[in-house]
Amino acid sequence: MALTYTKSKAILDEIAARTTRNQDRLTNSKVGVDDAVVDLGKMVTDYSGFSADLDALATANPTDVAIQNAKAEKDRMIPDFQAVKTEAEALQTAMGV
């Protein structure tokens, strides 16, 4: 079957629609990355006092297993948090957000 104007126009419309959908996806992704960077930065402020307080509590109570476990859990979370924050910031930079 030969290509007709009608078929050509349908394909062009499909290309335009898919391009728009993908542009919307990219825009939403950029917004999501920006939101993540902002929230991760806010988490540093929101929880730095808690982190210092938990460290002090653990230092003051070296034999309290529950407190030591809570501090250990916090200490394990920090590298994961930093990795996510670093990744989000790198994506933000790469995407030009």
Main features:
rod-shaped; 97 residues; 2 helices; 90% helix; mainly alpha
Describe the structure.
By secondary structure, this protein is mainly alpha-helical. The chain has a domain at 40-97. Helices cover 90% and strands 0% of the residues. The two termini are 46 Å apart. The mean pLDDT is 95.
Query: Uncertain spans, ≥5 residues at pLDDT below 50?
Result: none
Shape annotation: rod-shaped
Determine the mean pLDDT: 95
In DSSP terms (H or I, runs of 4 or more residues), the helix count works out at: 2
Give the N-terminus to C-terminus distance in angstroms: 46 Å
Strand content: under 5%
The Rg value, from CA coordinates, equals: 25 Å
Order of helices and strands: HH
List the helices and strands and how they pair.
Elements lengths: L4 H56 L4 H31 L2
Helix pairs in contact: 1-2
Q: Nutshell version of this structure?
A:
It contains 2 helices and no strands. The chain has 97 residues and is mainly alpha-helical. It is rod-shaped.
